[in-house]
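Allow me, if you will, to draw on your knowledge of protein folds for a short while. I have a record of one protein: its chain in single-letter code and its fold written as C-alpha cells. I should value your view on which stretches of the chain appear to form regular backbone elements. Thank you for your consideration; the sequence and its C-alpha cells are set out here:
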Amino acid sequence: MTGGSMSAKAPLLDMLGQTPLFGALEEADRKAVAQEMREASFGSGQSIFARGDEGRDIYLVTTGRVRLSVLTAEGRELSFAHAEPGHVFGEIAVLDGGVRTADATAVTKVSASTLSKGALMRLINERAIVREAVIRFLCRRVREADHQLEGIALYPIEVRLARFFLATARQKGDAETGAKVIIDLPISQSELALLIGASRPKVNAALALLEDGGAIARKDTRFTCDIDELEAISGS
C-alpha cells in the first residue's frame, strides 16, 4: 500500500526535485516515486540500520541529520558521511541485493521518506529514465568516495577541514569566489572529527588555525566561511 494523496506529498515532490538521485526526472516520474514513499521517524541516537542488515528500503532525509559510519577492526568508529535534508542514503544494499555496508544512526531527531526495494525495482523496470538516474547517482557516489579517501590519505587536517567547509557551503549554492557564506553545523567537534578521519584535539587545533587565518569565524553552531581563503587552503 502506498501512502497519501499527491497534494499531501507536494513538499516531498519538491524535495525529490532537489536530490542528485531524482532531481533530473520529469515531474510525472517524480510523482510516481513520491507516490511509493512512506514516512518514517527516528529519535536522536536511534539506529536506523546496522552494517550486515538486509537492505529493504532507501531513505530520503526530510528533517534532521543521520550519521553513516563503520567500525574498524580495532573498534574505532569512522563516520564517512552525514545525510542531511534532501540527502538519499541506504541505496547500495537495496540495489545489489547484498547487506548493509555501514551503520546509519540518527544524530538528531530525524524524519524521512522511505522507498522500498520492491517499489524501486518496479520503477527501474518500468521507467528507463529512473534506471538512468540510478546509474548516474551510483557513479557520483564512487567519485565522492574516491575524493574522500584521497583527502584522508594525502592532506593535513586543516586542508581536509577547509574542503569540508567548502563542500558544505557549496551545497547552499552561493559559494562563489569572493563570497562569505554562513552555514549552520549543529554537530560536536567529536562528530566533525569522525567525519574527516581525525582526533578531536587535532580538529580543535585545525579549527583554531582556520579561524586565525580568517577562513572561518565561529559563533555557536554557525560558521562564516570565507570562500577565497578556504579555496586557497584547500588548493581548490
Notes: The mean pLDDT is 86. The chain is about 45% helix and 25% strand.
